[in-house]
Amino acid sequence: MRATLMYGAGDVRVEQVPDPVIERPTDALVRITASCVCGSDLWPYASMKPEGGPTLMGHEFIGVVEDAGPEVTTLARGDLVVAPFAVSDGTCVFCREGLHTSCADPQAGFWTNASGQAEAIRVPLADGTLVKLPVEADSALVPSLLTLADVFGTGHHAALTGGVSPRTRVTVIGDGAVGLLAVLAARRLGAERIILMGRHKARTDLGREFGATDVVSARGEEGIEAVRELTGGHGTHVVVEAVGTMPAYRQALGVVRPGGVISRVGIPQYEDAPIGFGSLFLRNIRLAGGPAPVRAYIEELMPDILNGSIEPGKVFDTTIGLDAVPVAYQDMAARKSLKVLVKP
Ligand SMILES: [Zn+2]
């Protein structure tokens, strides 16, 4: 089959690789019908050393079950399924608490060297990992349902762990797909005001459509000042940090209200950050967020997509075939595309 391989920074190729096969009785084989490139794929695209490659890429997909091992009980050949960006058994102590990203099963974890941007993939722990979709593979809802694999679930996780409620005001830092869907999620949870910090007009326009009440395009001190002006000098109760860099964290510190929460869903590109007396402690500020257990949220978020009340799939501004995936990486890294849908 054809699959996407990353050989190193800036070097993504679509090549022939061996077809995946059932290796364990709990595996399923899925023929991929819709996939995408993630903002988090851009981190290795920027920095991966050639010694680390080549590695198969892709961790967000929808597809049709082609075959399943003898211990798979909830799925049958022909089922259309969505896969979260982490494999989980659905039965361990952490999964039962809704923290599927910490699943204790030895086969669980984030997809690594997995062929999500390919024609087919082997899915471990298929009963726990995959969720059946009640539509056909060519449904117009597929782009929105594909966001359940990662970006919408991640935006929801940011809003939820930040404590968004009808009484809260929210700042979202970052106008990538996750930031924009954190806006949609905050709106869905009833936030009374949502300030989106982002610099790309086409994206912040979509953010307004998703529910942002204000847009601040300035960054750093100037951006902090602008948010404070909009909030009577106090900042907001919740700040979603959907970038992952130190400047974004510092911006979050600057716009969070005393007693508030900074909820981080951008993968932190740092280990050391201010958390001491002057930064967090004095103002009773809490840190939340982490890799979203999106598997826990799929059943809750899907009905609003199926009934048409939300359309998170609007974050896909480009659709391509599998052979064009290297271009998708280039265009997303150059911010020419917001998020690229791949039809293998
Ligand atoms: Zn588990």
TrEMBL record:
PROSITE patterns attached to this UniProt entry: ADH_ZINC
Record InterPro entries: ADH-like_C, ADH-like_N, ADH_Zn_CS, GroES-like_sf, NAD(P)-bd_dom_sf
An example Gene Ontology molecular-function term: oxidoreductase activity
The keyword Transport is assigned to this record: no
Family from the record: Belongs to the zinc-containing alcohol dehydrogenase family.
Segments forming domain Alcohol dehydrogenase-like N-terminal: 25-134
Names of the cofactor(s): Zn(2+)
Organism for this UniProt entry: Nonomuraea fuscirosea
UniProt domain Alcohol dehydrogenase-like C-terminal: residue ranges: 177-289
A Pfam short name: ADH_N
Descriptive protein name: Threonine dehydrogenase-like Zn-dependent dehydrogenase
UniProt keyword terms in alphabetical order: Metal-binding, Oxidoreductase, Zinc
